[in-house]
Amino acid sequence: MDKLNMNKPGMDKLIISARINEYEMRDGNPNVPWSPGEIAADAKACREAGAAIVHFHARKPDGAPEPDPRVCGQIIRNIRDSTDILVYPTLGVLARKLPILQRLQPVLDLAASPATRPDIVPLCLSSPNWDFYDADRQALRGADHVYLNPTDELIACIETLRSTGVGLECLSWEIGATRRIAALRDAAILPDPIMLAFHLTSGGMLAGHPGTAEGVETHLDFLPDRGPYRWAVMNLHGSMLPLAEAIIRAGGHVQLGIGDYHYRELGAPTNADLVREIVRIAHACGREVATPDEARRILGFSSISTAKDPIA
Ligand code: ZN
Fold it and tell me: How far apart are CA 289 and CA 177, in angstroms?
């Protein structure tokens, strides 16, 4: 924890991203939003609690994944009708066997109109095996799933996104992906500043660094000069709360929500409850929390957005 414990004056305000639903069902927490109306209401509540960004997956009324991009567009409209939070849909993990540019096409279609243009989309800079280990049963599941992201397709995707006004978040599941991000920056393929998320994995998911301080530090050790990076941490299938203070003190940003982990040890919290807890920890650390407009500036999106997308 020591390496992360280096609170510096003048660091950026904290950007909190609410990861509200992913493809989670409601058995572990009944507050997972599914319908466009529920997602928009949850986004508004998270914004009021202190989040600057909302990440969501479109869902059917029964919770099944909703692949129709028109529904995603409707959700973006619904969110923007009620709040200024930055919107960040998925890039289609369910379509992981398609080439990346095909996965990107629905985002490009949404980006054609300012009303539905996402503020941010994610890009995984590696090809993780989507497998889980159940230590109690000593059994693997998902052993045949790979999220395929070849580097040449990633570069084509980055270049395509540059002209759309959609911000890019680089997801790093392991140190090899962090090294790839640094190499693409060195090759002037990724422009500064780079929005970077360390994608830790817990709950038996094997592809990421574990959801521990050491899991974060291994990435940070490779980035001694963090000036170009606006780095955040998320923990798929694990709690972010034990890590939050160290990340906040080190200048990182926090991404969490009941889409990643149900937080049953807290009862049945809402996404807004979790955001409020991160705000409380940040204030106890003496760090302010960014509004969506401030997040846009910190992430270097302002020139893109104001030039191409006069969203009020
Ligand atoms: Zn997601």
Answer: 28
3-state secondary structure of 69: helix
CA of 121 to the centre of ligand 1 (A): 10
CA nearest to 279, candidates 287, 270, 268: 287
pLDDT of residue 91: 80
Distance 9 CA to ligand 1 centre (A): 32
Q: Domains in the chain and their CATH numbers?
A: 11-299 (3.20.20.70)
Ligand 1: centre distance to CA 250 (Å): 25
Residues contacting residue 184 through CB under 8 Å, at least 6 positions apart: 125, 154, 155, 158, 190
Q: What's the pTM value of the predicted model, to 2 decimals?
A: 0.93
Ligand 1 geometric centre to CA of 39 (Å)? 13
Find the 122 Cα to ligand 1 centroid distance in Å.
Answer: 8
Output the CA 251–ligand 1 centroid distance in Å. Answer: 23
Q: What is the pLDDT of residues 42-96, one digit of tens each?
A: 999 999 999 999 999 999 989 999 989 999 999 999 999 999 999 999 986 566 6
Cα of 93 vs centre of ligand 1, distance in Å, is 8
Q: What CA–CA distance (Å, rounded) separates 287 from 199? A: 23
